[in-house]
Design goal:
Helices cover about 35% and strands about 20% of the residues. By secondary structure, it is an alpha/beta fold. The chain has an 8-stranded mixed beta sheet with strand order 1-2-4-3-5-6-7-8, sandwiched between helices. Strand 3, helix 1 and strand 4 form a beta-alpha-beta unit. The radius of gyration is 16 Å and the shape is globular.
């Protein structure tokens, strides 16, 4: 199946931003607002968004690192060859703000032609999972379901920390966590889980042996079962919500 793909350019309050868009070749299709993870938009991002588009969705991915340059992405081989990339990447991650990320997605959806009144679903990986959670919590009229794959930063000291509003959840979430996650283990996300699970709207799966970043087939941390089950549960949730 051919998946049309485009890189759009748009403006944000913080300057120009590229937007990755993939969609089915024909017909009408709902939209997935996708928040990338720390390594940025790279080959794995294209592959995953194409797979999601093949399941019948338009996928919109804003380049959250646009304040540092256009489409900066870190491939696994680059990171393995140059350990300093890790610190550069984390500096870029730390430069992001919750409000800035949400504004980036608003601009991305507008650039892709998504009507503001049209409900969408959202997915996020690692730091993107925090963004997806905040979207569902703060704007449930637009974001009607969310999927969080190996989430990070669901609980911290910030006023905008998702765990502070977890009990207010009104839209369903799928959460996949690696049981062997060494970077953001479950205990770091537990305050959010403790708040949100009693709502009955959270489908939580912990995958034994899966590490952080289990999604990406070209990364050393890839875990086939976790990635497969997460995709099945995510697409089932999105189909039901839409």
């Amino acid at each position: 199946m051919e998946i049309p793909s485009a890189i759009l350019d748009t403006e944000t309050p913080d300057g120009p931003m590229a937007v990755l868009v993939k969609r089915p070749a024909a017909g009408e299709f709902p939209t997935v607002a996708m928040f990338h993870d720390g390594p940025g938009i790279r080959t794995a991002t294209h592959v995953f968004s194409e797979k999601l588009a093949g399941a019948g969705y338009q996928v919109v991915v804003p380049d959250l690192f646009h304040r540092h340059g256009r489409l900066i992405g870190f491939e696994p081989a680059q990171r393995a060859a140059d350990p300093s990339i890790g610190e550069r990447m984390m500096g870029m991650v730390r430069s992001l703000t919750d409000d800035g990320i949400q504004a980036d997605m608003d601009a991305a959806l507008a650039a892709a032609g998504v009507d503001p009144a049209q409900p969408v679903v959202t997915i996020g990986f690692c730091l993107g999972a925090r963004a997806a959670t905040r979207a569902v919590l703060t704007r449930p009229e637009r974001y009607v379901a969310g999927a969080l794959w190996h989430p990070s930063f669901l609980a911290d000291d910030a006023d905008t920390s998702p765990h502070r509003r977890g009990a207010e959840l009104t839209r369903p979430l799928y959460i996949g966590i690696g049981g062997a996650d060494q970077i953001q283990p479950q205990e770091k996300q537990q305050p959010f889980l403790d708040a949100a699970l009693p709502t009955g709207l959270v489908d939580l799966v912990v995958f034994d042996g899966a590490d952080h970043g289990y999604t990406w087939p070209d990364h050393p941390s890839y875990h086939e079962q976790a990635a497969t089950v997460s995709f099945e549960r995510t697409t089932a949730l999105f189909a039901k919500a839409l």
